[in-house]
């Protein structure tokens, strides 16, 4: 399996894009909030928020174009660049996902800007934006873009947290299973050691008794004939002990 090279320009730009995208999301949320609360299309705060958001969107568009060009360059022969097909597909999907999100924010920004521009020419006597409360009766069922975006962000965060928790639970389950297996193995080894100790004690006791009996026989029989008998008895005793141990 091929892996990305350590110094991969795509990964460096991807990191910058992720950082810029996170900042842009906050700017977009702030822009929607300001746009919802403001009463003037020429509000300095609204114009500044719109300018900052537009600047970030342009930066993201430029970076995404570079990333897309990079993907197109390597997808014909990814293994030549130390990549595999799955990694190339992941990169193209990343560019698509970020591009869709950027286009959504740009559509929201440019759509409102165009509507405001047309309204300014068609109703020059009233250059102010309508208050949010003016739409409560007529468009009561319309969703607030700011609330919808915040809800999407919360849902994404919750999904990521659920995945992380699932990973933690799986890791804990694996570790617990390994600990239980180790405990059973240690318990079995303990039983085996206890059995060996019992066998050793039993054999040692029998050897001690046999040696004592042989000593008593030696002391009682000092002549040569007795010594021969004793030797035979010792030999027989050793054979019996060996057979006892084996059996």
From TrEMBL:
Gene3D superfamilies: 1.20.5.110, 1.20.58.90. It comes from the Eukaryota. SMART domains: t_SNARE (SM00397). It holds the Pfam family STX6_10_61_N. GO terms for cellular component: Golgi membrane. InterPro entries: SNARE, Syntaxin-6/10/61_N, T_SNARE_dom, Tlg1p-like_N. It is a single-pass type IV membrane protein. Residues 135-145 have a biased composition (Acidic residues). GO terms for biological process: Golgi vesicle transport; protein transport. Keywords: Coiled coil, Golgi apparatus, Membrane, Protein transport, Transmembrane, Transmembrane helix, Transport. It is found in: Golgi apparatus membrane. The keyword Transmembrane applies. Residues 155-217 form the T-SNARE coiled-coil homology domain. It comes from Exophiala spinifera. The chain crosses the membrane at residues 228-246. Residues 112-145 are annotated as: Disordered. This is t-SNARE affecting a late Golgi compartment protein 1. Belongs to the syntaxin family.
């Amino acid at each position: 399996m091929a892996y990305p090279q350590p110094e991969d320009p795509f990964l460096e730009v991807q990191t910058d894009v992720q950082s810029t995208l996170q900042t842009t999301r906050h700017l977009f949320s702030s822009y929607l909030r300001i746009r919802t609360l403001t009463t003037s299309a020429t509000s300095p705060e609204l114009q500044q928020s719109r300018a900052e958001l537009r600047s970030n969107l342009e930066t993201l568009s430029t970076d995404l174009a570079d990333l897309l060009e990079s993907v197109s360059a390597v997808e014909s022969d990814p293994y030549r660049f130390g990549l595999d097909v799955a990694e190339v597909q992941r990169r193209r999907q990343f560019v698509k996902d970020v591009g869709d999100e950027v286009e959504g924010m740009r559509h929201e920004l440019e759509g409102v800007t165009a509507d405001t521009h047309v309204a300014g020419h068609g109703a020059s006597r009233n250059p102010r934006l309508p208050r949010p409360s003016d739409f409560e009766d007529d468009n009561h069922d319309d969703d607030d873009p700011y609330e919808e975006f915040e809800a999407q962000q919360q849902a994404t965060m919750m999904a990521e947290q659920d995945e992380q928790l699932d990973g933690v639970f799986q890791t804990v389950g694996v570790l617990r299973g390994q600990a239980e297996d180790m405990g059973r193995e240690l318990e079995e080894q303990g039983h085996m050691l206890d059995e060996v100790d019992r066998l050793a004690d039993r054999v040692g006791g029998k050897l001690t008794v046999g040696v004592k009996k042989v000593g008593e026989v030696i002391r009682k029989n000092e002549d040569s004939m007795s010594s021969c008998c004793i030797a035979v008895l010792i030999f027989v005793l050793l054979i019996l002990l060996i057979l006892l141990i084996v059996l």
